[in-house]
Amino acid sequence: MAVFTSAGAAQTLNYTGTAHATNLTAISWVAGSTMWGTVQTAAFTGTTQSGFTSLASVDLSLLTFNFTNLDLNTYQSPGGATSGFERYTASGSATFEVRYNGALWATGTPVFLRTEVDNNLDTHAIGTGSAFLTGAGTSSSFYDEVMSKTSGSGILNFTITDFYPVDAAGNFASVGSMTISAVPEPGAYAAIAGGLGLGFATWRRRLRRPGASRS
């Protein structure tokens, strides 16, 4: 199975994750199952990192990236010798938050989550996802670093190396990594464009405050 990579990324956070899906559809997926219509929640918890100065001295097991309410948008059912995919995009009630030990570190907007399998017997998917930050929380160090190193875009790219079901009730586990980027993948431009101005303006206002970080 091919694995998506993010070559050349200077900042990387590795994570383990969970997800819960609802609204089962009749669209065929793998091993006799069908696709879920909504990823109701997804949470990625940090394990190791490199390149993030704001995360150098924190307990990564307390750092979570939380998505809610992504709806099935496009898809392709896999066959015996053909690949398939599910692509979920943000609904009107979708949220994205970065939290540390429960405290809000940053808010943002989820863009998409995509999983892919090699065939209709492949229960371990790979995938990608994206979100962008729009505001800081009680601690601004992580938000400020991301905004500075992405030239104000705040884009977070998620690479999923394993995404698999843990039961038949819509619960999943995952392993992957998060990197930052100033440029989104082509398919995310339209969804991101409306929110980038808000995030960039918030970041610029923070930079104008006395003593604000400019690194």
Describe the secondary structure blueprint for this structure.
Blueprint: E1 12-28, E2 34-50, E3 63-76, E4 84-100, E5 103-117, E6 125-136, H1 141-149, E7 155-165, E8 171-181, H2 189-208
Antiparallel strand pairs: 1-2, 1-8, 2-3, 3-4, 4-5, 5-6, 6-7, 7-8
Please provide a written account of the structure.
The chain is mainly beta. It has one domain. Helices cover 13% and strands 53% of the residues. It has two helices and eight strands; from the N terminus they run ββββββαββα. It has helices at residues 141-149, 189-208; strands spanning 12-28, 34-50, 63-76, 84-100, 103-117, 125-136, 155-165, 171-181. Strands 1-2-3-4-5-6-7-8 form an eight-stranded antiparallel barrel. A hairpin with a 2-residue loop joins β4 (84-100) and β5 (103-117). The protein is elongated and about 45 Å long. The relative contact order is 0.19. Mean pLDDT is 88; it is low at 1-8 and 193-203.
- The number of helices is 2
Give unreliable regions as ranges.
1-8, 193-203
Instruction: State the shape.
Output: elongated
Spatial ordering of strands, largest sheet? 1-2-3-4-5-6-7-8
Helix content: 10-25%
Measured distance between first and last alpha carbons: 39 Å
- Let me know the number of strands: 8
